[in-house]
Specification:
Elements: H1 11-17, H2 20-30, H3 35-56, E1 68-72, H4 78-91, E2 100-103, H5 105-108, H6 116-127, E3 131-134, H7 150-163, E4 169-174, H8 176-185, H9 187-192, E5 195-199, H10 204-217, E6 221-222, H11 224-237, H12 246-265, H13 274-278, E7 279-280, H14 282-286
Parallel strand pairs: 1-4, 1-5, 2-3, 3-4, 6-7
Helix pairs in contact: 2-3, 2-4, 6-7, 10-11, 10-12
């Protein structure tokens, strides 16, 4: 009996051998929540896997456009997802090196004539074969300043995004409303962005889970009363200015560790146990100025 003319293609083997599974599992492991973001990343991975199979059959297909926009508030995981996207693209053969180069306006735009082009080209050269992540991309363009050289950087970026899109993926990131205005005033850039991914703010429960993961990674734990204090801290901090999601939680834990160390140092001369060294207590959290004028708050520390 002759073999079938068109044997079935093994998508599972391609999925496994391309290390896409590892990249997606790392995304789930490293980031709490962000369900819509993870769903979109999986959709992009599925598209690229299917494109690889189509290519193996010489089916006509244009190279997929992979330039992206990540929009959302600070501390919502945009840089981490960009790193995982670089690894995913490398595993699928869409990025030679799979590295991430993260920059801001200051890395691209010069302050005098003739300074911007070489700076921008140097960054692009470093990013080739991987992913270029431009945070707060809307600052590239400052139309109110007639001596601003950001437009020159944008024009060079546009050329590379179009002519070398097989060797470079560009991810522009920033606040959603500002990114929308940026694209409205730069239609050339907007037309080159195929994937827009919105990063939602974390819920209080997700922020608490993030804190637990961070503490676990640092080999700390919360006492039961400190757990309560942290939940109260999160509820209060989310309502205050300049809240930066997971970034604010990390900063809060760093300050709690400082207070914890100071508290233990004040006990010098007495014996300390392992539990003392790894356990944060409520006073390590409640000394934050976030609790100022709140019942149970302790005298605040500068910058806490």
């Amino acid at each position: 009996m002759s073999a079938p003319e068109n044997p079935p293609l093994d998508l599972e083997t391609l999925y496994r051998d391309s290390h896409v599974r590892e990249a997606l599992e790392a995304l789930d492991r490293e980031l709490v929540g962000l369900a819509p973001v993870k769903t979109r990343v999986r959709e992009i991975a599925a598209l690229l896997l299917v494109e690889k199979l189509r290519s193996s059959l010489a089916l006509e297909t244009g190279a997929p456009s992979l330039h992206m926009c990540f929009s959302g508030n600070p501390g919502t995981g945009k840089t981490t997802v960009a790193m995982r996207m670089a690894a995913l693209l490398h595993g699928l053969g869409y990025a030679r090196k799979g590295h991430l180069v993260a920059v801001t306006r200051d890395d691209l735009v010069g302050q005098y004539i003739g300074h911007t082009a070489p700076r921008t080209r140097e960054v692009l050269k470093r990013a080739m074969g991987g992913v270029l992540f431009i945070d707060e991309a809307y600052y590239l363009c400052r139309p109110e300043n007639e001596r601003d050289y950001g437009q020159e950087a944008i024009e060079i970026l546009l050329q590379v995004m179009e002519n070398q899109r097989d060797d470079l993926v560009v991810i522009l990131a920033g606040y959603k409303d500002r990114m929308d205005r940026f694209f409205a005033s730069n239609p050339g850039l907007a037309s080159r962005i195929a994937h827009h991914i919105d990063f939602p703010d974390y819920t209080p429960e997700e922020l608490h889970a993030i804190a637990r993961l961070m503490l676990e990674g640092m080999q700390y734990r919360l006492s039961p009363d400190a757990e309560v204090a942290l939940r109260e801290y999160i509820a209060l901090r989310r309502t205050q200015p300049h809240f930066a999601n997971a970034r604010s939680i990390r900063n809060a834990l760093d300050r709690a560790r400082l207070r914890h160390a100071s508290r233990l140092f004040g006990r010098r001369g007495t014996g300390l146990t392992r539990e003392d060294l790894i356990t944060l207590e409520p006073e390590d959290i409640r000394a934050s100025r976030v609790f100022r004028n709140q019942p149970g708050g302790l005298p605040r520390e500068p910058g806490a």
